[in-house]
Amino acid sequence: QVQLVESGGGLVQAGGSLRLSCAASRSIFSINAMGWYRQAPGKQRELVATITSSGSLNYADSVKGRFTISRDNAKNTVYLQMDSLKPEDTGVYYCYANPVLGMMYWGQGTQVTVSS
Question: Whole-angstrom Cα distance, residue 76 to residue 64?
Answer without folding.
Answer: 24
